[in-house]
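dude i think i finally got it to work??
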Amino acid sequence: MLIDAHSHIDRYGDALNAALEEIRRHRIFTVATAMDVPSYEQLRLIGGRCDLVLATFGVHPRRAPEYASRLGELNAYIEASPAIGEIGLDFHWVKDRSGYPAQLRVLEYFLAAAREQKKFVNLHTKGAEKKILDLLERYDIQRAIVHWYSGSLDILRAMVQFGAYFTVGVEVHHSDEIPAHLLLTETDNPGGLKWLKDVVGMPKEIEKVVNTLADVRNSSPELISQTVQDNFLRLISDDPWLEDARAALTR
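look at this
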């Protein structure tokens, strides 16, 4: 089975039905990450329509200032979600530095909850890679996915040492530096491909990601997809929140 470990399927709009049909037809297990509360509410409805879509709750760093002063309102959503994402920091694309303390406050709130509830986290790290590594260590996060890493190689290697998993998508930056046992695949669709090539990405783009990784790593698409599936199953093994996900992945 193919794994898309970071997607924003709620943003397909009128193309949602077509996207879900591709997920079913191509057997793509999809971790659907939220940007905020309305996003998660929509993802839960979508996840109810397809057992290959795992709806997860997070607040994207761009949205953090909207929630930093009312974190208690997030508790019910965090508790309902089987995993946490998208959360993180963005000190690169977000130019307004006045919002950085809010980003940090929201991220730490989620990390504390993830530690307490023993859930994996799906992280946005742009421009704040070292700070996020420090926080993962401080909060003793046992399972972390770093989404579309594009920072320095020294921090990447430190994250590898920490044991973080890495999603590689439509841009295979640093992919040859990621050990096979920590490799995952993603599309960041529908916006990932649009950002890179001004084309709306559909779920089956994950097949191109796998093929490109096979070329870069002197491997085969079959071996890459099997490795990624094995890695994801290891990530969620024995997780009581993700029994349904394991069943969907192995049936």
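The mean pLDDT is 95.
im so relieved honestly
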